[in-house]
Design a protein that fits this description.
This protein is an alpha+beta fold. The chain has four helices and seven strands. Helix 2 runs antiparallel to helix 3.
Length: 197
């Protein structure tokens, strides 16, 4: 006959009492430390990507180059049939120059500026045609949006921070700069916690 185990009987009785009382049974500790969950980053108040406007898209560029190449080829063939064959080469050179000019224009269109406003920082990131980034940061409490209008009717969008002046969005139109200035003022006002009294 097996001997009674008083310790095991006490553990079983404690678990039984816990189940009858509707409480979970005791679970042995594993010794692992609990790590607090990281809070998700708050979304930005404003996040805008400013890009130069290009009226001719990639598909339109292909159509333009195709039509231009066909016209130059037909005209060059006519001149070559008349004996002025060097003109055919000049037509081809014209097409090449126009193509390279458009390629340079599209390469410049890769330039953009990313404006981000958070509770504690205003950040403007400039990305050039080669993908190089340059970040400039301001304190939203002291940053002020400046939009002077000159005698010729043009305006300039800038951030004034103490004695520092930072101009940006130069590739936008005057109306686009004015509209974005109002949007940026509202975002900075929100970052400050409302209007100052």
């Amino acid at each position: 006959m097996a001997a009674d185990d008083p310790d095991g009987q006490d553990e079983r009785s404690a678990d039984a009492q816990s189940k009858r009382a509707g409480q979970p049974a005791s679970v042995p500790a594993t010794g692992g430390a609990r790590t607090p969950a990281k809070a998700a980053p708050s979304p930005p108040i404003l996040h805008v990507v400013l890009r130069p406007h290009r009226s001719l898209g990639p598909r339109g560029f292909l159509w333009l180059m195709g039509i231009l190449s066909a016209v130059c080829f037909v005209a060059g063939a006519i001149f070559a049939a008349l004996g002025a064959w060097p003109v055919f080469g000049f037509f081809g050179l014209d097409v090449l120059i126009i193509y390279l000019a458009f390629r340079a224009n599209y390469r410049a269109a890769r330039i953009c500026e990313v404006v981000r406003v958070d509770r504690d920082v205003l950040q403007i990131t400039r990305i050039d045609a080669k993908g190089r980034k340059k970040q400039t940061q301001f304190n939203p409490v002291w940053a002020r949006v400046s939009l002077p209008v000159y005698r010729n009717g043009r305006n300039e969008l800038a951030i004034v921070h103490h004695a520092r002046r930072f101009s940006f969005a130069r590739f936008l139109t005057d109306a686009e700069r004015a509209a974005f200035a109002d949007e940026l003022r509202g975002a900075l006002l929100t970052a400050r916690g409302g209007p100052r009294i």
